[in-house]
Amino acid sequence: QVQLVESGGGLVQAGGSLRLSCAASGTIFSVIAMGWYRQAPGKQRELVAVISSGGNTNYADSVKGRFTISRDNAKNTVYLQMNSLRPEDTAVYYCNAQLSRPPFGLWGQGTQVTVSS
Fold this sequence. Notes:
mainly beta, 4-stranded antiparallel β-sheet
């Protein structure tokens, strides 16, 4: 089981960039994939990007070409590079780990990203 801690959020102007980090502690042998979700006030949490243990990636249509998910297995860390940020990207961003054993999924506490218009 891993514990996830997000960092790197903040306030940025439209068109700017941020890099989010998600540091994991504990064993990583059970991790199938890791991803980033986001949730704006009053809205449903949505998938932003995911990277599998094999390195395959998927992105929400709204962020394709702007965001890049990556990982550093040696540091047990997953990143989300966010470029060309838009006000619509404003949300709390959560790191997620998909596990092969119970509880099958873990969540970080979230980091706020605010993009000013």
